[in-house]
Amino acid sequence: MTTQGSQASTRIALAVALTAAAGCYTGLSNGREDAANASDTDDGVGDGADDGAGSAGDDPQPAEWVPRQGLRRLSVAEYDQTVRDLLGIPDLPALELLPADPRTPFDNDYTEQIPSEALVNATDFLAEQLADEVLADPILRDSLIGCVPQDPSDATCMRDFIERFGRRALRRPLTETEIDRYLNGPTDGDGALAHAEAEGDFDAGVEFLIRAMLADAEFLYRIEIGQPVPGVPGLVRLGPYEVATRLSFLLWGSGPDDALLDRAAAGDLDTPDGIGEAATDMLADPRAIARIDRFHAMWLGYESMFIDGELAAQMRGETMALLQRIVFEDRRVWHDVFREPATFINAALAEHYGLPAPDGEEPAWVDYGDSGRQGLLSHGAFLSVGAQGEDTSPVQRGLVIRRRLFCEEIPPPPPTVNVDDEPPAVDGFCKVERFAAHREGDCAGCHALLDPVGFGLENYDPLGRFRTHEPDNPQTPDDESQCEIAGEGELAGVGPFNGPAELANLALGSGKLDLCVARQLHRLTVGRGVLGPDDTAIVTALRDRLGEGEFRFDELLTAIVTDPAFAYRREDVKVVPPGPSDPHPDQPATAEEKP
After folding, report:
1. Residue 278: its H or E element
2. Phi, psi values for residue 345, rounded to 5°
3. What is the distance in angstroms between the CA of the first residue and the CA of the last residue of the chain?
């Protein structure tokens, strides 16, 4: 059913999207701004009045309390989940076809989202393939169209589909002008009806619409127009559908569903309390479980493991089960993720870890007993991070703990140093003796923070198995299997430990985890890996809002989305008006603060 007109429309929409990636908000609306703010009736913002658009009664003052955010494209994972929810297709090729997103540590960093020809081609191809797949399945087709066309030129049914599908795809109601343009085309001859009539098939018009909307800039990008706050340059207050979109991508990694869009239309997202109520309902959705699991995986570095297959799947399932139990089922404090005395494993994974097997063939909760394990830091998924070949690296594991778990800044090594090279043997061939060389020279300061942490986990190999001796390296003349592993480590400034359970207790007692998880969740929320002093102040205020004690993870999420600043956007770019021959303004990004 593909036509040259639909291909051209797709290409045009993609070209607009790539212009948007350069920072061009101006010229993208096409009715967008009016639609996004259709339910806003306020006549002023920033005067402290309760204007009903996401404020608790006072706009955030000063403006610096609103995080800087730029134009964000859907990440590959967000595209994948959004299309699944939108079309009902269970298996998508998006993860294989779209260019991979850099991790900083999350995959939604808009400062790294560079337009490319590969992105254009993949998005175009996917739009075509997805439209064909939906229309080839009678159940999916009928569910998506939602009406029964009487003939190929049934304008009433086509209009109904445009309104319903467009609302979900573009995450807001379409204006009458937009509906007419999709239905009849800009010249009353290249819209959905014209395609359906030319082919004598109603589905040809549906295919045209699916492809056009999946390639629309507003589907591929989260375009936030909002309303400018008077007297505060660069600060805009979001409309209710833009708030719904922020909320859904944060909690689900997907676009808003009809229920959330209905809340936006009814004004239920106009206050922090209303946003909090919506968030509570959304956290009961299975997509929230997957989203929080993926947040931890990207944060702690085990999203992509160095192994694959059944063992990797079992380990990832083990960790997801832990998060589901603590955060969703028991609704316990988040800190219990690191001190849970049991793990969810099957007989094969129990044998792998050297733990008692559960009853039956299905995975079940098994107590760690006196094994020295507890919580997430004992899982094979986490212990695989920082592996070096087939063995562990105390330095890399130390970096994982310091940088990812504690959000500490460790300077990179000098450019002349190859971090993959282990120190040469001087006083012995065992790892503890070899790594003693790190305590000498200019590198001693950093390695004093890293190596002792790694050695405290050395009893656990890259697959999370307990071991008492080092593996022999066949490339050396020495027999490293004679080297007994003591497993003694130290968290500088905090205390000594042996194994993941003692490390977890030290980390929890130090308070380092609380501020770090808030910082990392802020990164995910704003879509920016590099943070500056203004971000630090916002994160500290978020942590202070939770208090000094322990908190649940849903409380942390709720604190973010119910902050009045959540309904605002502060520009992260400087807008340069277009010249006479430049149809699109250029918005170079401002210089980022270095970490």
Report:
1. helix 272-282
2. -140, 160
3. 51
DSSP state of 330: S
Tokens 């056009």 correspond to what residue? Answer: 212
Nearest partner of 429 among 490, 484, 386, judged by Cα: 484
- Within 8 A by CB and 6+ apart from 256, the residues are 168, 171, 241, 244, 245, 247, 248, 264
CA-to-CA separations, 542 to 390, 481, 536, 556, in angstroms, rounded: 41, 49, 10, 8
| Residue 180 CB contacts under 8 Å (≥ 6 apart), including other chains | none
Report residue 239: phi and psi, to 5°.
-75, 170
Could you tell me the pLDDT band of residue 39, with boundaries at 50, 70 and 90?
very low
Here the tokens at position 84 are 């699944």
* Mean pLDDT value across residues 387-410: 93
HSE on the CB side for 99, CA within 13 Å?
A: 14
Residue 482 tokens read as: 């004679």
**Inter-CA distances, 401 with 64, 386, 491, Å:** 31, 10, 10
Q: Which tokens go with 316?
A: 């990832």
Token representation of residue 394 = 């105390």
Query: d(Cα 368, Cα 388) in Å, to the nearest integer?
Result: 27
Identify which of 129, 169, 160, 174 has the alpha carbon closest to the alpha carbon of residue 38: 174
Helices marked H in 146-175 — which ranges?
A: 155-169
**pTM of the shown model:** 0.88
pLDDT at 506: 96
DSSP string covering 440-464 = SGGGHHHHHHHHHHHHTTTTB-TTS
3-state SS, residue 309 = helix
Model pLDDT for residues 327-375, shown as the tens digit of each residue: 999 999 999 999 999 999 999 999 999 999 999 889 999 999 999 999 9
- pLDDT category at 306 given cuts 50, 70, 90 is very high
Say what angle helices 117-136 and 138-145 make with each other, to 10 degrees.
100
* DSSP collapsed to 3 states, 209-235: HHHHHHCCHHHHEECCCCEECCCCCCE
Taking the C-alpha atoms of residue 481 and residue 486, their distance in angstroms, rounded to an integer, is 13
Taken in order 394, 400, 406, 412, the sign of the CA dihedral is positive
Residue 586 has pLDDT above 60, yes or no: no
Q: What are the residues whose beta carbons fall under 8 Å from the beta carbon of 369, sequence distance 6 or more? A: 355, 356
565 contacts: CB under 8 Å, gap ≥ 6? 60, 65, 66, 67, 538
What kind and span of H or E run contains 369?
A: none
Q: What is the DSSP letter of 111?
A: G
- Any idea where the domains of the chain sit in the sequence? 4-38+51-277, 385-509
Q: Retrieve residue 347's tokens.
A: 């007989």
CB 261 within 8 A of CB 168: yes
- How many whole angstroms separate alpha carbon 310 and alpha carbon 363? 14
3-class DSSP state of 61:
coil
DSSP structural state of residue 344: E
Handedness of CA 22, 26, 29, 34 (dihedral sign): positive
Give the residue from 216, 175, 195, 222 showing the smallest Cα distance to 69. 222
Provide the residue type at 36 as one letter: A
Torsion of CA 125, 128, 134, 135, to 10 degrees: -150
Backbone angles phi and psi of 460, in degrees to 5:
-115, 125
* 8-state DSSP, 589: B
Is residue 289 within 8 Å of 320, Cβ to Cβ?
yes
